[in-house]
Every structure is written in structure tokens, then in C-alpha cells.
Specification:
Oligomer: single chain
Number of strands: 2
Distance between the termini: 35 Å
Strand order of the largest sheet: 1-2
Length: 263
């Protein structure tokens, strides 16, 4: 099916393409991971937050959420039934992709980038304080070792997002949201690729969300990784369909993105 790019989507599409191009170029620059490191930590917060939210929505409780310096993360929840375990285990990678897709849609719908950044800051700080600090302290689970870095990283990320929302221009803020969306999408896809290969019967035994799913359902981990990849691609396809579609005629475009009218 042919998809045409709507005229009023071209300014945002150009911003998105620039953000994606910069992300790809950074992969080939030595030590560029220093630049992308905060974004990687942000995606980890979203990933672990997906597990936590799914646990709460399925009637379980979250005992702790932690992010490590190597950008890995852990979320401990109470163990529910089979459906609960499936949803909680799936919510990490699929949730990261869904969040990135949501950012794309919000940009396309001309939701102010400042609002998106403030909302992201509140989300990260809420995860940090509630599940990264208070829950581990009061659950007496002994999982306190992850508190210092999780608290530091979450606070710095939230502060950075608030500062950009407050002081950056509309164009810069929107570009930053686009770059954040690209990082969420790309990291989710590449992490899923890694999980897929780690789930191979010939790969070394490494604990992953797919392994958790295999333990809960008896279905091989590599099949779950494949299902998540298909879901992630489906979410991205749906988001891009919304992204290229034209707005309603009565919609007032966001001025910083609008092309100059023809005279």
C-alpha cells in the first residue's frame, strides 16, 4: 500500500529525519556513546517503568526499580498468574517502543514540545522516587544497592528535561523530543535484536525478559523475542501512518513548524 507524505507533515518529517541521521552517525563516531549515554539511561527508565506499570495494572505490586551505570535495569514485582507474567515481561521492550511511537504522534499532532518534555520529566522522576527510592526502602527486600545511581540518574534526567522545556526555543525543544523518540525506537529495536540472538539455543544462558517468558509459559524464549519484534514493528508502522497523515482542515498548525505561505 502506497503511503503519501502529507504536505503539512513535511516540516516535522524533516526534523525527524535529521534526528534519525544524527543518531546513526553517532554510532560510527568513537566515544560518541558519551553523548548518547543520557538517552540510553532514559530508555532504560522507560523500559523498567513499563514493567512496573504492567505489574500495577495486573494487580501486582512493585518492590523496586533500579537502573545501573551500564544502562541495564531491574524491576522486581510480585508474581501473579500466567497472564500477569506475560504482560509484565512483555511491557519492557514493547513499552519502550510504544513510548517512542507516542512521542512521534504527539509531535505530529502539534502537542507543545515543552509539555511533552515536562511530562517525560514527571514520569522519570516519579519512577525514581516512588519505585527507585521509597519502595526499596520500605519493602525491606534488601535491594538497596541500586538506590544511589537510580536516584542520581533519575534526578539529573528530570532536571535536564525541565531545563530544556523551560529555556530552549520551540524548535530546539521539538528537535530534542524527536531525538528522544528516535532513541527510544532504535534502542528498543536493537535491544530486541540482541535478545533474539541471546535466546538462541546455541547462545550462552543469560537472564532476559524472553527467558522469564519461557519459564512462565514453556514456550521457547526465541519465539517470544520474535513476537516482540513483530509487535514493535507493528507499533512503529502504526505510528508512522499517523505521522504522515494530514491533519484536519480546521486544525491550527504549530507555527514553529509551518512552512511560509505562498504569496
Amino acid at each position: 500500500m502506497r503511503v503519501n507524505l502529507s504536505r503539512d507533515a513535511r516540516p516535522q518529517a524533516m526534523t525527524l529525519l535529521v534526528a534519525a541521521a544524527i543518531s546513526v552517525v553517532l554510532w560510527f563516531i568513537p566515544f560518541a556513546e558519551i553523548v548518547t549515554y543520557p538517552f540510553r539511561i532514559f530508555v532504560t527508565f522507560i523500559h523498567e517503568g513499563g514493567h512496573a506499570l504492567a505489574a500495577l495494572l495486573t494487580g501486582n505490586s512493585v518492590q523496586s526499580l533500579s537502573v545501573a551505570m551500564n544502562a541495564s535495569g531491574e524491576t522486581y514485582t510480585t508474581k501473579g498468574g500466567l497472564i500477569s507474567q506475560v504482560l509484565v515481561s512483555s511491557a519492557g521492550y514493547v513499552g519502550s517502543m510504544a513510548f517512542g511511537a507516542l512521542l512521534l504522534v504527539l509531535i505530529r499532532k502539534a502537542i507543545a514540545a515543552r509539555i511533552v518534555l515536562l511530562g517525560s520529566a514527571i514520569l522519570v522522576f516519579g519512577l525514581t522516587i516512588i519505585f527507585g527510592l521509597f519502595k526499596p526502602l520500605f519493602s525491606w527486600s534488601g535491594s538497596w544497592s541500586g538506590i544511589p545511581f537510580t536516584l542520581l540518574a533519575g534526578t539529573l534526567l528530570a532536571t535536564g528535561l525541565i531545563l530544556i522545556a523551560r529555556f530552549a526555543s520551540a524548535r530546539v525543544a521539538t528537535f530534542f523530543v524527536s531525538f528522544l523518540a528516535v532513541q527510544c525506537v532504535l534502542n528498543a529495536l536493537f535491544d530486541l535484536k540482541t535478545v533474539f540472538f541471546l535466546s538462541s539455543p546455541f547462545a550462552p544462558a543469560v537472564p532476559t525478559d524472553a527467558v522469564n517468558m519461557a519459564n512462565a509459559t514453556g514456550i521457547p524464549a526465541i519465539l517470544w523475542a520474535g513476537v516482540w519484534i513483530l509487535l514493535a514493528i507493528g507499533i512503529l508502522w502504526f505510528a508512522m501512518r499517523l505521522y504522515v497523515a494530514g491533519r484536519d482542515k480546521g486544525f491550527q498548525p504549530d507555527l514553529p513548524f509551518e512552512e511560509s505561505p505562498t504569496v
